[in-house]
Amino acid sequence: MEKGKITSMQMMLLLYPTIMATAILLVPGVTAQHAKQDMWLSPIWASLIGFLTVYATVWLHLLYPKKTPIEYSVEIVGKLLGKFIGLIFLFFYFHTTALVIREYGEFVVGNFLLYTPINFVMGSMVFVCAVAVRCGLDVLGRLAQLLVPFVIMLLCIMVILLLPDIDLENMLPIMEKGILPSIMGAVTPQSWFSECFLMAFLLPHVIDEYNGRKWGNIAVVSVVFTLLVTNLITLLVFGNITADFVYPVMSVVRYISIADFLEHLEVVVMTLWVAGVFLKISVFYYALVVAIAQWLNLSHYKPLVFPVGLILLFMSIWSARDLMELTHFLGTSAPFYLTFVQTGIPLLLLFIAKWRKRAASSHYVVSREQGK
Residue 34: phi, psi to the nearest 5? Predict the structure, then answer.
C-alpha cells in the first residue's frame, strides 16, 4: 500500500510538529487556569502519557511487525471486535483531523485574515495537505526535515527576543499550594502527548525500525522541552494573567520591541503555526486514509485522498460553532476522549496480545511435554 520509506529520525520530525503545533498556542493559557505560577511544571507531568503511549505502540509493533492498528486489532481480538475497534479509530481520526483544521482556521481568521471566509482558509490548507499526502510518506518525511529545523530556529529567536521583558519573580512562590495544581494543569496537555500513537501508522515504513523507541522518546522529550520553555517565557512576561489569554504566545510576541525598530513580530507566530499545522494535518490525514483503505481491504489509499479531504472540510465546518465552543471542548472533554482512544485502547490491545502470546507459548510447552 505504501511504497515510500522513512528513517526513524524522519519519524521523530513528523511526530514533533504533530504534537507541538496546536499545543504551543493553547497549552499556556489552559495550564495557567489550574497551575497558576506552576504552569511550567505541567508539561513534565503530561509527558508521562507520551512515554507510556510510545511504549505501548512500539511493543505492539514488535509483536505485529509491518502491521498498523487496523490490521493487528483483528489479529488480537478477532475479526468482529477488531473491525469495530478499527471503526473507532476511523471515526476518531476523522473527528480529530477536522478539529485541527478548525483550530487552524479560527486562529488565522481571528488574528490575521479578519475579512477572509474561514471556509476558504480551511479549504486551501486541506487541499495543500491532500497533495502532500498523495505524494506519499517519504515526501512527508523530507518535508519534515526541511520545515522542522526552520520552526525550531524561529522559536529560539522568539525566546531570545523576549528575554529583556521577563520577570523572574512571576514564577514565585513555586508550589505554593503543593504539587496538585501543576498536575491539574497537566490534564489537558497530556491528551496532546497521546498523539504519539500516530507512530503506529509510521513504524511499518521505517527503514531502521529498531531505533523506533529511541526516536519516539526523543520526540516526547523535544515536545516537553518546547512546551516547558514556552510556558515559562509566557509566565515570566505575563505572570498570573496568562490564563486570561486564548493565545498567550501570540500575545506575548506582541510585547517584543527592540529600539523601536524590531517589533510587530506576529508574523513569526503565523509562520510557526502554518508550518507546524501543515505537518500535523498531513500526518493525521495520512493515518486516516491508510486506516480507511486497510479497513475496507483496498489495495491503495491514494484514490481516497481527495474525497476524504472534502469530507474533512465539511466536518471541520460542523465540528464547532465558534472559537469559544472549540476551546471549551479542548479544555473539558477532549483530554479524556483523546487519551482513551490513543493511549487506553493501545494499552488494552497490548495487554490482550501479551496474554494471548503467553497462553499460546504455555500451550506449546504442554503439548511438547505430552508428546514426549
Answer: -105, -40
215-239 core/surface letters (b: 16 or more CB in 10 A; e: else): bbbbbbebbbebbbbbbbbbbbbbe
Q: What's the mean pLDDT in 52-73?
A: 91
Q: Which CATH number applies to 8-371: 1.20.1740.10, 1.10.10.60, 1.10.357.10, 1.10.3720.10?
A: 1.20.1740.10
**Residues 6+ positions from 242 with CB-CB distance below 8 Å:** 28, 29, 32, 39, 234, 235, 248
For residue 12, give every residue at least 6 positions away whose Cβ sits within 8 Å of its Cβ, in sequence order, or none: 215, 216, 218, 219, 222
Nearest by Cα to 335 from 179, 183, 175, 230: 183
The pTM score is 0.90
Question: What are the start-end ranges of the H helices in the chain?
Answer: 8-35, 42-63, 69-77, 79-111, 118-135, 137-162, 180-185, 187-193, 212-238, 248-253, 266-295, 305-318, 323-331, 334-339, 345-371
The DSSP result for 33-45, as a single string, is HHHGGGGGGHHHH
Q: Find the angle CA(199)-CA(45)-CA(195) to the nearest 5 degrees.
A: 20
Asked if residue 52 lies in contact with residue 300, where contact means CB atoms within 8 angstroms, the answer is no
Q: 10 Å Cβ neighbour count for 331?
A: 16
Q: Map residue 263 onto helix, strand or coil.
A: strand
Tell me the pLDDT tens digit for each residue of 332-356: 888 888 999 999 999 999 999 888 8
**Is the pLDDT at 364 greater than 50, yes or no?**
no
Provide the angle, in degrees to the nearest 10, between the axes of the packed helices 79-111 and 305-318.
Answer: 60
Distance CA 298, CA 330 (A): 34
Is 174 buried (19+), middle (13-18) or exposed (0-12) by CB count in 10 A? exposed
pLDDT of residue 241: 82
Look at residues 18, 12, 372 and name the one whose alpha carbon lies nearest to residue 195: 18
From the CA atom positions of the chain, what is the Rg in Å? 22
Q: Which residues pair with 257 in a beta bridge?
A: 263
Question: Cell numbers 473527528 correspond to what residue?
Answer: 95
